[in-house]
Amino acid sequence: MQVSEKFYEFMSERTWQLTEKWYESLDKSDSSGVYSSTDPKVIQTLKRQNHEFHERFCVLFKDIGQDALCHFAQWIEEIAKDEEHLQTPTHYILREFFRTQDQYLEILQEFNRQHGSEFPPERIESFRELIIKTFGLVISKFAEENYEYAQRRLKAQQEMIRELSSPVILIDKYTGVLPLIGDIDTGRARYILENTLAECVDKNVEHLFIDLSGVIMVDTMVAQQLFQIIESLNLIGVKSSISGIRPEIAQTAIQLGISFENISVTSTLERALSQQR
């Protein structure tokens, strides 16, 4: 029997033992993340994922020379987008990769003690190099995939926050209110413009009250975009009224040469709504 086949069998017989030993020695005092979970379902999934890693790794010694990254691609994708792992600090995950690598190196030493005399030393050394090289490739690819999924999730959360932070609220069949709160940067201002126009069309709004009393600070470019919303609404047949303009925003608008001549402006939203009635 060739040394690679013998080592493959040697490792395959110990995969569940590796998983149980790994979990038993796991530092479960982490402040957050999958490794500190006490949920039986999470623990069961974690063990399954760890064991599947061992099964995939063992096969590398059965078929020396195969593409390790291709072999681990599905496993890496599952772990990288797994919600429990996404909530786990990356340095905790890397720690467990290296602990698993140490397990493999220990098994290789055990194999060498039992069967080293049967095979050339350079073959045993080549296995050590393969273990270290494969872990390096898997860790690097995991970090890349994990970052991409984390960025996608962050982008989705930001989109949701933007949508919730600029809602057009109907107060009767054809009248809506757009209450804006917090700082508005260029990105958010652009989103408000696009979202407001779309919502007014979808909800058949004919008169929109834009309340700026909760907006603390805007820069020159953002102020310009806010007033572009009013111009754009006018183009689609929606009348606009503004309330709660702070002195700083008013000064910025005047400096930009923005005219309030054809815009209904009141100090408070309450007053604007009462005038409309």
Automatic annotation (TrEMBL):
CDD domains recorded: STAS_RsbR_RsbS_like
Region forming the signal peptide: none
Keywords per UniProt: Phosphoprotein
Protein's name according to its UniProt entry: RsbT co-antagonist protein RsbR
Boundaries of every STAS domain copy: 177-276
One Pfam family here: STAS
UniProt xrefs under InterPro entries: Bact_StressResp_Reg, STAS_dom, STAS_dom_sf
Biological source species: Rossellomorea aquimaris
